[in-house]
Amino acid sequence: MGENITAWGHEIVSDSKCFAPIVLFVYNRLDHTKRTVEALQKNMYATQSALFIYSDAPKNEDAVTKVQEVREYIKNVDGFTAVTIIERDQNLGLARSIIDGVTHIVNQYGKIIVLEDDIVTTEYFLKYMNDALNIYDAEKKVMQIAGYMYPIEYEDLPETFFLRAPDCWGWATWKDRWKYFERDPVKLVKEFSEEDIYRFNFDGSCDFWSQVQANLSGKIYTWAIFWCASVFRRDGLALYPRQSLVQNIGCDNTGVHCDDTNCYSVILNNNVVEYFPKLIKENEKSLFRIQMFFRKNNSISLLNKIFNRVKRLRCKKK
User: Whole-model pTM above 0.70?
Assistant: First the structure.
């Protein structure tokens, strides 16, 4: 709510020791990687930040050439205080690569900013992340900083606010929060009550829980839903901007577990984020807006599935 917002100085970060390392995970999408890196290079604080790039190995012969193209490109990336490239010798897959990379870097540096190769940032993304990491460093209930915000009506919302679940399209956290990350679908299914699942699904407005079940059955192998569950189980919160500082350019069927859709496209905030809530509490108005977004897009998704199914049946009859 507006009354709980306090201005906390513009220049929170004052020396290079305060800047969190950036970790970027890449694979075989050269164009996406270029756009992500070029946007990051334009960021305020880029030249004071260390960049670690994790390049996963090709999973088959078909991916070898494209992975090599990306690796040749990242060898020439500059514009940061240091660039470290970690080339995997064998294919880990996105989830295993992120879990391993984030754990290693955050344990070494105490905090971390994480990006994948399809997240284009605004020029003040790193400032927002570093400011928030410093502001909420001692607030253990705040477990993550999110850079993305769904395309909702935001004009009357506070500039930043808290929600019960993190989002992983451009995010940051601390070592003492990430230590609670646990990827154990069997344990999760046993421990979550029906009430927990309802709240985890943003009060029944979406079906995040189905991702846990899909991991349990072995249908998919992901990590982000378990980070959400780890935060949720500790009654943690994530900080969000009212207007997104990142755009996901990978919702084009080129990424892992990401369909071709434009429902997550946003108008980016190209201004400095100046206000952060002092009261660590979920913002109910923002929560309601996001629930509305989920319900609307779940209905559209269901109609599209029905339409495609009918279309396939008609084709079979012909």
Answer: yes
Contact between 20 and 112 under an 8 Å Cβ cutoff? The reply is: yes
pLDDT tens digits, residue range 191-225?
A: 999 999 999 999 999 999 999 999 999 999 999 99
- Rounded Cα distance, 138 and 125, in Å: 21
Q: CA–CA separation, 242 vs 156, rounded Å? A: 9
pLDDT digits (tens, 9 = 90+) for 151-184: 999 999 999 999 999 999 999 999 999 999 999 9
> First and final CA of the chain: distance in angstroms?
57
Whether the CB-CB separation of 171 and 239 falls below 8 Å is answered with no
| Residue 228 to residue 169: CA distance in whole angstroms | 13
DSSP 228: H
Q: Is 238 helix (H, G, I), strand (E, B) or coil?
A: strand
Q: What distances in angstroms separate CA 229 from CA 42, 96, 100, 182, 192, one per listed residue? A: 34, 17, 18, 9, 10
3-state DSSP assignment of residue 108: helix
The pair of structure tokens assigned to 150 is 């769904």
What's 48's DSSP letter? G
Would you state the CATH architecture of domain 15-317?
Answer: Alpha-Beta Complex (3.90)
